[in-house]
Amino acid sequence: MKIDTIISRLKERYPPGKFGSRDPFRVLISTVLSQRTRDEVTDRATEKLFSKFGDCSALAGADAGDIEDMIREVGFYRVKAPRVKEIARIISNDFKGKVPDDMDTLLTLPGVGRKTANCVLVYGFGMDAVAVDTHVHRISNRLGLVKTKTPQETEMELSRVLPKKYWRDINELLVRFGQDICRPVGPKCPLCPVSELCPSGKKK
Fold first, then answer.
1. Which of 66, 101, 123, 124 is most buried, taking the most CB atoms under 10 A from its CB?
2. pLDDT given for residue 200 in this prediction
3. Which pTM value belongs to this model?
4. What angle do CA 122, 127, 131 make, to 5 degrees?
5. What confidence tens digit (pLDDT) does each residue in 152-174 have?
6. Which regions of the chain does DSSP assign to beta strands (E)?
7. Is the predicted pLDDT of residue 201 greater than 80, yes or no?
8. What is residue 20's predicted lDDT score, i.e. its pLDDT?
9. 2-16+131-203 adopts what CATH topology?
10. Where in the chain is the domain with CATH 1.10.1670.10?
11. How far apart are CA 96 and CA 24, in angstroms?
């Protein structure tokens, strides 16, 4: 089956991490910061932020201006600074410092959409969920796994066509694949481990 072959080959090249091994709050804040921001920039900003405000309560009590200074590299940092402070306040006050582990509750948090919520479920709690960001949306369509126009459509379609055993894997695999080989512009098709299965790769 095409999907099994693609996942198997990508796993060989990019061994998956330990799902559920990361702090759910850090995953949540990092994913909020990542919106419209390059991955490497998000990683730097997250490190800066948590080096000064190490946990939920510290971030909830932080000055929004100080948060801005820590995340200045990310896109729309002035919007995101009060947003992450409010998320921290809500989790600290309403959830006793523990990030919710269900989609519906996560979606009530400011600035949290389905991608962010699914990332928290996968990377923070090790749950089976399909987290779709720009890499997953783009590459799933490029490989012909889905034919969709929006990330939310891609999430729903992948949930339908992808065996559940691969749900947690798909985000990390396609993100790393997209950063390394299957780039938006100038993909390295000669180096691609699944090029013969890809409609775009065959053309090249």
1. 123
2. 79
3. 0.92
4. 35
5. 999 999 999 999 999 999 999 99
6. none
7. no
8. 58
9. Endonuclease Iii, domain 2 (1.10.1670)
10. 2-16+131-203
11. 14
Report d(CA 125, CA 21) in Å as an integer: 7
Euclidean distance between CA atoms 47 and 156, whole angstroms: 32
Task: Write the DSSP symbol of residue 195.
Answer: G
Q: How far apart are CA 122 and CA 28, in angstroms?
A: 11
**Rg (the chain; Cα; Å):** 18
- Helix H or strand E encompassing 67: helix 64-70
The secondary structure element, H or E, covering residue 117 is: helix 114-119
CATH architecture under which domain 24-124 falls = Orthogonal Bundle (1.10)
Long-range CB contact pairs, 180-189, < 8 A, 24+: 180/14, 182/139, 182/142, 184/138
Evaluate if residue 204 carries a pLDDT over 60. no
* List of residues 6+ apart from 40 with CB closer than 8 A: none
Q: Which of 29, 3, 28 is nearest to 124 (CA)?
A: 28
Q: What contacts 26, CB < 8 A, 6 or more positions away?
A: 46, 50
Nearest 5°: the CA angle 85, 105, 38 is: 50
